[in-house]
């Protein structure tokens, strides 16, 4: 596939599925021209575009060191925060600014002040990737450039729009496959604000699926816990096994 661009969704620990697919592309020397990601998809995108291979990323995420980057936040705007000074951030995100990464990368985050989602391709890599992953109420929001940023995946979990109209062959990889069972009932039971949030995310997800050249997911991902450090190798292996069905 020529002129390949990847859109990587959020999904926390399920991101190992992304890494399995990326490892297969590396093994087959299939070049990626551009990335767009949300949450863990943003971190993986920036890391891979910076030259950190998929298996190296998996090694980092499986390490005991990754747990040391998480700090208890004493319930100050979030249960946890990520230690911005930990050396592991430099290991997985070695290039300081998005615009200096050799390949095009966009990461998304939502500003709670302006109530607007942003798709960044310039700016500081570390705070913007942390902002894209700041899932409230678990993680503390990130102050950046007069913005109060949280996880962009809450509203647009597969951010395809930065990749459109650029002659890319766009592959969307979705860590949050939808279950049709009781979907309408679930929405009806939510409060109005949450209902609007989920509907926006649902609509954006459908748009990304409809406008991608390839859409990759797997129903087993629904059974995979998102907030765990266990089982990452199995999720990676699932992604690697699925990849040949889409890339040849």
Write the layout of secondary structure elements.
Layout: E1 4-8, H1 15-27, E2 32-37, H2 40-49, H3 54-62, H4 65-68, E3 70-72, E4 80-82, H5 87-92, E5 104-111, E6 116-120, H6 125-132, E7 142-144, E8 147-151, E9 169-173, H7 183-189, H8 192-211, E10 214-216, H9 232-242
Parallel strand pairs: 1-2, 1-9, 2-5, 9-10
Antiparallel strand pairs: 3-4, 5-6, 5-8, 7-8
Helix pairs in contact: 1-2, 1-3, 1-9, 2-6
Structure, described:
This protein has nine helices and ten strands. The protein has helices at 15-27, 40-49, 54-62, 65-68, 87-92, 125-132, 183-189, 192-211, 232-242; strands spanning 4-8, 32-37, 70-72, 80-82, 104-111, 116-120, 142-144, 147-151, 169-173, 214-216. Strands 1, 2, 5, 6, 7, 8, 9 and 10 form an eight-stranded mixed β-sheet that branches. The protein has a two-stranded antiparallel ribbon with strand order 3-4. Strand 5 and strand 6 (116-120) form a beta hairpin. Helix 1 (15-27) runs parallel beside helix 2, helix 1 (15-27) runs antiparallel to helix 3 and helix 1 crosses helix 9.
Oligomer: single chain
Strand content: 15-25%
Kindly name the structural category. alpha/beta
One letter per element, helices H and strands E, the order comes to: EHEHHHEEHEEHEEEHHEH
Amount of helix: 25-40%
Gap between N and C termini, in Å?
A: 8 Å
Question: How would the global form be characterised?
Answer: globular
Could you give the count of β-strands?
10
- The overall average pLDDT, rounded, is 88
User: Are there runs of 5+ residues with pLDDT below 50, and where?
Assistant: 71-76, 182-190
Instruction: Work out the helix count.
Output: 9
**How many strands, what sense, and barrel or not for the largest sheet?**
8 strands, mixed
Radius of gyration: 17 Å
């Amino acid at each position: 596939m020529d002129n390949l661009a990847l859109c990587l969704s959020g999904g926390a620990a399920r991101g190992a599925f992304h890494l399995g697919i990326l490892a297969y592309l590396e093994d087959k020397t299939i070049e990626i021209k551009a990335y767009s990601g949300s949450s863990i998809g943003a971190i993986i995108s920036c890391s891979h575009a910076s030259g950190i291979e998929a298996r190296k990323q998996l090694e980092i995420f499986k390490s005991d060191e990754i747990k040391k980057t998480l700090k208890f936040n004493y319930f100050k705007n979030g249960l946890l925060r990520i230690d911005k000074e930990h050396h592991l951030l430099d290991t997985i995100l070695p290039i300081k600014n998005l615009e200096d990464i050799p390949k095009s990368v966009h990461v998304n985050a939502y500003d709670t002040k302006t109530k607007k989602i942003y798709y960044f391709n310039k700016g500081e890599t570390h705070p913007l990737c942390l902002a894209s992953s700041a899932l409230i109420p678990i993680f503390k929001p990130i102050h950046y450039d007069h913005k109060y940023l949280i996880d962009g995946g809450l509203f647009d979990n597969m951010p395809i729009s930065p990749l459109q109209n650029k002659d890319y062959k766009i592959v969307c990889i979705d860590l949050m496959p939808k279950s049709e069972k009781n979907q309408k009932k679930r929405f009806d039971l939510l409060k109005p604000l949450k209902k609007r949030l989920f509907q926006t995310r649902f609509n954006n997800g459908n748009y990304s699926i409809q406008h991608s050249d390839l859409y990759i997911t797997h129903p087993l991902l629904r059974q995979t816990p998102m907030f765990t450090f266990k089982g990452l190798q199995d999720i990676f292996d699932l992604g690697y096994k699925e990849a040949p069905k889409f890339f040849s």
